[in-house]
């Protein structure tokens, strides 16, 4: 695809591979580096100085990004009675109890986030083989197992993301779209990085934030200087 190669080459020339940018500079470059006709997704990759093989160094959590993700999230809720009604009123796309468990076990997968009330987890646990590999299994650590269903659904719809360190020690997460304003992207990036700083395990030794890279779907990776987050802990 010569046109794609030409565009990519032109874009690559705008990024200094040897330089580490500020969050604001990197987010501005991400927008300039966009060349696809669709609205590219912007992702952040943060390499942490942890060993995920050790349970006490597993970094995971969730947060609501200040400006959302730009993604339409389809939410499925496992709940009964009043809580099922609460879920629907809050905007859940799908809600139900044993009937919904059966539907998912039969192959229904048209959803992006799963939330469940604690009393439904016995039944939902049977779907582990289906939901687990896709990262959809509800978990109290990230707020997706809760009786506060209405708030959980609204947060999921409003831009709540989950993050979890992978085997290689890297956290990948969506922070928006290339169409976002530069300030919105940088706000979202800082919110995620600060959340990771706060989640630092006490057993983690040496440098914690090893590297930070931001990129769009088709664009090049742009390195961010982690110094501002390492030195002061938190950056507004």
TrEMBL record:
<dbReference type="InterPro" id="IPR016095">
    <property type="entry name" value="Ribosomal_uL1_3-a/b-sand"/>
</dbReference>
<keyword id="KW-0689">Ribosomal protein</keyword>
<dbReference type="GO" id="GO:0006412">
    <property type="term" value="P:translation"/>
</dbReference>
<comment type="similarity">
    <text>Belongs to the universal ribosomal protein uL1 family.</text>
</comment>
<dbReference type="GO" id="GO:0003735">
    <property type="term" value="F:structural constituent of ribosome"/>
</dbReference>
<comment type="subunit">
    <text>Part of the 50S ribosomal subunit.</text>
</comment>
<keyword id="KW-0699">rRNA-binding</keyword>
<dbReference type="Pfam" id="PF00687">
    <property type="entry name" value="Ribosomal_L1"/>
</dbReference>
<comment type="function">
    <text>Protein L1 is also a translational repressor protein, it controls the translation of the L11 operon by binding to its mRNA.</text>
</comment>
<keyword id="KW-0810">Translation regulation</keyword>
<keyword id="KW-0694">RNA-binding</keyword>
<dbReference type="GO" id="GO:0022625">
    <property type="term" value="C:cytosolic large ribosomal subunit"/>
</dbReference>
<dbReference type="GO" id="GO:0006417">
    <property type="term" value="P:regulation of translation"/>
</dbReference>
<dbReference type="InterPro" id="IPR023673">
    <property type="entry name" value="Ribosomal_uL1_CS"/>
</dbReference>
<dbReference type="InterPro" id="IPR005878">
    <property type="entry name" value="Ribosom_uL1_bac-type"/>
</dbReference>
<keyword id="KW-0678">Repressor</keyword>
<dbReference type="InterPro" id="IPR028364">
    <property type="entry name" value="Ribosomal_uL1/biogenesis"/>
</dbReference>
<comment type="function">
    <text>Binds directly to 23S rRNA. The L1 stalk is quite mobile in the ribosome, and is involved in E site tRNA release.</text>
</comment>
<dbReference type="GO" id="GO:0000049">
    <property type="term" value="F:tRNA binding"/>
</dbReference>
<dbReference type="InterPro" id="IPR023674">
    <property type="entry name" value="Ribosomal_uL1-like"/>
</dbReference>
<keyword id="KW-0820">tRNA-binding</keyword>
<keyword id="KW-0687">Ribonucleoprotein</keyword>
<dbReference type="GO" id="GO:0019843">
    <property type="term" value="F:rRNA binding"/>
</dbReference>
<dbReference type="InterPro" id="IPR002143">
    <property type="entry name" value="Ribosomal_uL1"/>
</dbReference>
<protein>
    <recommendedName>
        <fullName>Large ribosomal subunit protein uL1</fullName>
    </recommendedName>
</protein>
